[in-house]
Task: structure prediction
Amino acid sequence: MLSPLCLLSNPIRGVLYLALLSLPCSSTALESATNIADSVHTLAPIRYVNTSTLSIAYYDSAPSDSAAPVAILVHGFPYSIDTYVDVVPKLSAKGYRLIVPYLRGYGTTSFLSPSTPRSAEQAALGKDIVDLMDALSIDKAIFAGYDWGSVAVNVAAALWPDRCTGMVAANSYLIQNRQTAWATAPSASLATRWYFYVFLTPQGYSALASDTRGWAETLWSRNSPQWNWTQAQLDAAVPAFRNPDYVDIATNFYKNRLLYAPGDPSYAKLAGELDLLPVIRVPSVTLDPDQAPVFPATNGSSTAQHFSGPRVHHIVHGCGENIPLQSPQVFAEAVMEVAALGKRHN
Ligand SMILES: *[C@@H]1O[C@H](CO)[C@@H](O)[C@H](O)[C@H]1NC(C)=O
Ligand SMILES: *[C@@H]1O[C@H](CO)[C@@H](O)[C@H](O)[C@H]1NC(C)=O
Ligand SMILES: *[C@@H]1O[C@H](CO)[C@@H](O)[C@H](O)[C@H]1NC(C)=O
Result:
């Protein structure tokens, strides 16, 4: 199924590393049967651990297996940890320990203090991953994500490479330099990001607060137009939006990215480092779904400058933004691929 289309040279190491491969957004007969039955299992049980700022709710597939290689799987907006419900068994079967946390503002992850700013800035999302690892005494892990999860794993991999054995990220590199936050873009591109701008307004805030399910339904449909997601999958995600900080966090992500909300001062130093667009030097597999209008698929060359280690880029055909739920096999294979990439280059 893998058809190598081209090889590009890595600008920093001068080695042929970036392979562009095409993947179908396939689903097995078993997955289709699950969809027809419209039944969805969920990740359980949920565990809790405290960092300095959060009580993080997370699923852990093998809490007592301290020898297993760990992969941390990070969800996006407006989704939940159950995005990974079909990825987890595939990787568990290969001996991985999977940790799937609810982001700040989602599910039963909660802030320990009412006075902590409800910031969803990129530095906070990335640091939460490393704080979670510290709290669980996990030294190193593979980081994998899509959408907000890509932002989180990009940041964590770039700023804490010693904690990361490999990164899987949809849309390659989404770390933002605030200086370019207001760069002009084609109208067709801005039109796909309409909700970023709605969330800057009080109307957007109250609209999301009054109908979190309806917003998820709209964004799942618009951001993955060819994905026949089921009502059962949406039902499984909806409890994640009942967090008391959900609307603050969801809108803050876009407000902060568009410079309409300042960051939390406690992340100022990290935020400054991220403005320099730090290079990701850990082994990386990047995935561009070709049915995700907000971030059109690329061949990976435009983001090559942000990677200095081994990197493989795939276009995932027929897939929308939620790759792990729509195409769990592709996502699971990307995690195994980045692990192999790390071993080959050590
Ligand atoms: C987390 O911190 C809260 C508040 O300090 C405390 O009540 C709770 O027991 C802690 N939870 C864990 C799992 O340590
Ligand atoms: C999704 O549903 C539409 C309409 O029923 C159908 O035409 C299409 O083939 C389906 N797509 C997939 C990938 O199953
Ligand atoms: C990748 O895409 C860029 C921009 O669209 C194009 O200029 C470049 O030739 C492409 N590279 C390959 C190897 O296809």
